[in-house]
Amino acid sequence: MAESDRTGGILTIDLGAVAANWRLLRDRAAPAECAAVVKADAYGLGMAEVAPALAAAGCRVFFVATLDEGIRLRSVLSARATGAEFPPPAAPTIFLLNGAPRGYEAELLQPFVESLALEVSRALQFFFTSTQFSQIDHIVLSGGCAVLPGADEAVAARTQINTILANPFAGMVLGSQAGARSKGLLADASMLMVACGLALRRFDE
Predict the structure, then answer these.
(1) For 72-104, how does the pLDDT look when each residue is reduced to its tens digit (9 = 90+)?
(2) pLDDT of residue 109
(3) Coil/strand/helix, residue 45
(4) Whether the Cβ atoms of residue 46 and residue 14 lie closer than 8 Å to each other
(5) Residue 159 to residue 20: CA distance in whole angstroms
(6) Pairing relation of β-strands 36-37 and 138-141?
């Protein structure tokens, strides 16, 4: 007996309509980002089908409820699963509605931050032994790891050198469009060093 013969009812999901609804919400929410919540197997509609359809429509931010759902969604949204490539920075971002798993800070974050500080200290020792310099006044952290909670304090404690987070926008006047997003922009400032530097090169042309 076929599966369709054993079921009391069959629900047909129109993925085109799902994508169209998301695009409608995206246009109404602009310039804010419009995300998609696909927890609980996309509310029973099927994460494996709904998420790729939304990604193909342009959705780049997804929310799930658990870490396992996030792992599954990452697999579903992989280039191999969807048949599409997501070049940075357009690659989908996945957020957990329930936050990080229990023990994340003690078991994962703190050891990683301590390891990062140790690597910085080792790099300094190599610098001191391979150059004529013997003193550094400041350490400026940039990149994604720089914004990890406690990273600058850990590096300062390990190296005994004043450590700060990079902010390429310090001293700049933000335009009206950037000003509306200044809080998020400043929070990500240390990760935008290269992008800011490349943009500033045009001022010399």
Answers:
(1) 999 888 854 555 555 444 568 898 887 666 777
(2) 87
(3) coil
(4) no
(5) 54
(6) unpaired
Query: What was the pLDDT predicted at 62?
Result: 94
Angle between helices 47-57 and 67-76 (to 10 degrees): 60
Distance (Å, whole) CA 63 – CA 113: 26
Q: Are 122 and 158 in contact (CB under 8 A)?
A: no
- In tens, the pLDDT along 146-205 reads 888 899 999 999 999 999 999 888 887 777 666 555 666 777 788 888 888 887 776 655
Tens of pLDDT along 31-54? 888 999 999 889 888 899 999 999
| Exposure of 151 in the CB half-sphere (CA atoms within 13 A) | 20
Decide: residue 53, CB within 10 A, 0-12 exposed, 13-18 middle, 19+ buried.
Answer: buried
Distance CA 105, CA 10 (A): 45
The pair of three-digit structure tokens given for residue 10, joined into one six-digit string: 């069959």
**Residue at token pair 């050198």:** 161
pLDDT of residue 25: 95
What kind and span of H or E run contains 22?
helix 15-29
Contact status, residue 35 vs residue 1, Cβ threshold 8 Å: no
Instruction: Write the DSSP assignment of 129-184 as a string of letters.
Output: HHSS----SEEEE-SGGGGSTTHHHHHHHHH-SEEEE--TTTTPPP-HHHHTTHHH
Task: Spell out the residues 6+ positions from residue 51 whose beta carbon is closer than 8 angstroms to its own.
Answer: 36, 38, 42, 62, 73, 76, 77
